[in-house]
Amino acid sequence: MNIWVLSHQYDYGDLCDKYKWDEEGRILGVYYTKKEALKSLIEYQKIKGFYSYISNFYIEEYILDEVEK
């Protein structure tokens, strides 16, 4: 069985200073179909905090009960 994971990740701060640079990421949802993940992505793109980094959404396919290689 395949599932689809929707996540959002972005970097912020001063990229030249490792103490002032950080990254943020979170899993937003897990879906049975890519179509459902895309519907959810469209809704998340409207939310403040997400639409500032609109190109940083990711949808990845995973197979349940299988070791990731």
Briefly characterize the structure.
With 69 residues, the chain is of the alpha+beta class.
Furnish the topology, listing elements before pairings:
Blueprint: E1 2-13, E2 21-31, H1 34-44, E3 57-63
Antiparallel strand pairs: 1-2, 1-3
List the total number of helices: 1
Strand order of the largest sheet: 2-1-3
Q: What gap, in angstroms, lies between the N and C termini?
A: 17 Å
What's the count of strands?
3
Describe the biggest sheet?
3 strands, antiparallel
Helix-strand sequence: EEHE
How would you state the average pLDDT, rounded? 87
Determine the oligomeric state from the structure. Answer: single chain
Q: Calculate Rg over CA atoms.
A: 14 Å
Helix content bin: 10-25%
- Stretches where pLDDT is under 50 for at least 5 consecutive residues are none
Structural class: alpha+beta
Beta-strand percentage? 35-45%
General form: flat
